[in-house]
């Protein structure tokens, strides 16, 4: 299975794995699965850290790509065509976060299951989103 971590799941997997659901932890540990971390996640972490909306202790946002690789995960680049087509993602009431929307669009277009416990993402399941939680 191809997995794409959302930003919270990525941070939890590294710093607080107990916050992940048991099925998500099991999926991340399975050698049969490919785990991807989007560059969008690194951008979100850096931006929110710089704005003071995310507190990181003992790590610089610039260190996260290396941490992902050290964890055995693939850094997933943002394809320009994917970014340009992301406006086609259907609108789900109450959900407008641009980082989440780009991660959801990536998961849909790349055939990944999105590792996320965000309840707002369930609104995208009828549009084909597969969730791992």
Strands, helices and their partners?
Elements: E1 2-5, H1 7-15, H2 22-29, E2 34-38, H3 39-50, H4 64-70, E3 74-76, H5 80-85, H6 98-110, E4 113-115, E5 130-132
Parallel strand pairs: 1-2, 1-4, 2-3, 4-5
Quick overview of this protein structure:
By secondary structure, this protein is of the alpha/beta class.
Provide an overview of this structure:
By secondary structure, the chain is α/β, with parallel strands linked by helices. It has one domain: Rossmann fold, CATH 3.40.50. It contains 6 helices and 5 strands. The chain has helices at 7-15, 22-29, 39-50, 64-70, 80-85, 98-110; strands at residues 2-5, 34-38, 74-76, 113-115, 130-132. It has a 5-stranded parallel sheet with strand order 3-2-1-4-5. It is globular.
Annotation keywords:
133 residues; five-stranded parallel β-sheet; alpha/beta; Rossmann fold
The number of distinct structural domains comes to: 1
Note the main sheet.
5 strands, parallel
The low-pLDDT segments are: none
Average pLDDT metric: 96
Portion of residues within helices: 40-55%
| DSSP E strands, number | 5
User: If helices are DSSP runs of H or I spanning 4 or more residues, what is the number of helices?
Assistant: 6
What would CATH call the class? Alpha Beta
What is the gyration radius calculated from CA atoms? Answer: 14 Å
Coarse structural class: alpha/beta
By CATH, the topology is Rossmann fold
CATH superfamily: 5'-nuclease
CATH architecture: 3-Layer(aba) Sandwich
